[in-house]
């Protein structure tokens, strides 16, 4: 039993620098200039799960990303971790896409890869965080999906048994391949890159596909294909005062009471 697995990965701004993201006061556009980027954290878990499935059943793992040319960095990282091939979906026509137009292009790329058994995604990105892309890709590929997986087993290689947490327990859901699964961070502990993995990078296949390489309707991609409209963007002003107390517990309690009394709050 051999599995053809695709893992969707996204390059995102490093959350440590979110406070440095600015808004253009005129246009409201987000400026991510000079903000370092990383692989979306839960996508590392999706890569790890894909590699574990391949190790168990054999087959191939392809990492795919839609993004600007620099998104190749996260695809190269995936290749050093052990992914077999990568596809970057990169074209100016894809820019300014919302989650639906992003999923549409990803689905077209996955269709071009062909005969895919399992598509793995993270459950959410740390920047957009809509949790929509995985389910939308599944709908566009007309395959079932299961979200927020904390465990995936494939007893016979075709029937997936997926566990996901819910508020007061967990659900176990079964589904047949082909299917799409979004994973949560608890699912595994991602491996780290090895020197051997880095050395294999040169021998791996990395493709870049633009609008002419995949079958897409030009009206369904980029800004034109995005039904979401951003009404207004604004910077939230924190007007509450913050006070950090230091010292022993008794000293901090005494200082807090003194301050609350001074403000006539107690
Ligand atoms: C009107 C509008 C305009 C926008 N314009 C821009 C823009 O110009 N530039 C910009 O960077 N963003 C832009 N965005 C944000 C961008 O569309 C979203 O980041 C993107 O749609 C993914 O949604 P998400 O981050 O909420 O993903 P989620 O659904 O939270 O992500 C879940 C998972 O889906 C997969 N995934 C998500 N995105 C990708 C991807 N691109 N490639 C591969 N896998 C992916 C990953 O596995 C991820 O873990 C815009 C959004 C809107 C609404």
TrEMBL record:
User: Is the keyword Cell inner membrane assigned to this protein?
Assistant: no
Keywords of the record, alphabetical order, are:
Electron transport, Transport
Q: Does Ribosomal protein appear among the keywords?
A: no
The Electron transfer flavoprotein alpha/beta-subunit N-terminal domain extends over: 27-218
One family name in Pfam for this protein: ETF
GO-annotated molecular function = electron transfer activity
The record's listing under InterPro entries reads:
ETF_a/b_N, ETF_b, ETF_beta_N, Rossmann-like_a/b/a_fold
| Record-linked SUPFAM superfamilies | Adenine nucleotide alpha hydrolases-like
Extract the PANTHER family matched here.
ELECTRON TRANSFER FLAVOPROTEIN BETA-SUBUNIT, PROTEIN FIXA
Record protein name field:
Electron transfer flavoprotein alpha/beta-subunit
Q: Which organism is it from?
A: Sediminispirochaeta smaragdinae (strain DSM 11293 / JCM 15392 / SEBR 4228)
Its lineage reads: Bacteria, Pseudomonadati, Spirochaetota, Spirochaetia, Spirochaetales
